[in-house]
Design brief:
Pathway: Cofactor biosynthesis; adenosylcobalamin biosynthesis; adenosylcobalamin from cob(II)yrinate a,c-diamide: step 2/7. GO terms for molecular function: corrinoid adenosyltransferase activity. Keywords: ATP-binding, Cobalamin biosynthesis, Nucleotide-binding, Transferase. Strand 1 and strand 2 form a beta hairpin. The protein is built from 5 helices and 4 strands, in the order E-E-H-H-H-E-H-H-E. The strands form 2 sheets. A two-stranded antiparallel ribbon has the order 1-2. The chain has a two-stranded antiparallel sheet with strand order 3-4. 56% of the residues lie in helices and 6% in strands. By secondary structure, the protein is mainly α.
Length: 193
């Protein structure tokens, strides 16, 4: 099998159920998810160099990579029956459980923080921002065509997950988060409300 087909040379690409121009909203959405998946893979590479401190996170990120392919697949269909969707709201609920689990390890934060600290944390912050862009692309696509709404919810929660685990990466490596010094106090723990 050859890697090149020459079918995209005129600026179109195949999606499941048809062909579209390469900058179609559908391609932008699943292409951004693919970009995110690459950064998740990079984060896993940094975990592999961290001497066993992040095996739980590694397992979760590997599962997330599979689910990101599911997200892209659900968005690549021109027409699909809801029974064929791969992304389900149970996946969103599981992300919420993981968020709560990791957030319990993190030091209290009251102000916005700047991306940074450890190399792993910085990469997870890149994942967070690319995930937000993927979510925006999915919202744009959903404004003019039917999409799996669970994909949008999954991406929204996934960006929260990346924020929390970026902080956990710093905490486990005993690297302080960098607070945005001009920020007002904006975060409050649920148990204090």
């Amino acid at each position: 099998m050859g890697i090149y087909t020459r079918t995209g040379d005129e600026g179109q690409t195949s999606v499941i159920g048809g062909r579209v121009i390469k900058d179609d909203d559908r391609v932008e959405a699943y292409g951004t998810i693919d970009e995110l998946n690459c950064f998740v893979g990079q984060a896993i590479s940094f975990i592999d160099q961290a001497n066993g401190k992040f095996e739980d996170l590694r397992e979760h990120l590997l599962e997330i990579q599979q689910e990101l392919f599911d997200c892209g697949s659900d968005l690549a269909f021109v027409k699909i029956s809801e029974t064929k969707y791969k992304v389900r709201d149970e996946m969103v609920t599981r992300l919420e459980q993981w968020i709560d689990l990791y957030d319990a390890e993190n030091p209290k934060v009251e102000r916005f923080i700047l991306p940074g600290g450890s190399l792993l944390s910085s990469t997870l912050h890149v994942c967070r921002t690319v995930c937000r862009r993927a979510e925006r692309r999915a919202v744009t696509l959903g404004q003019h065509t039917d999409i799996n709404p669970s994909v949008r919810r999954y991406l929204n929660r996934l960006s929260d997950y990346f924020f929390v685990v970026a902080r956990t990466a710093n905490a486990r490596q005993q690297v302080a988060d960098i607070e945005y010094v001009r920020s007002k106090k904006v975060f409050r723990r649920k148990d204090k409300e």
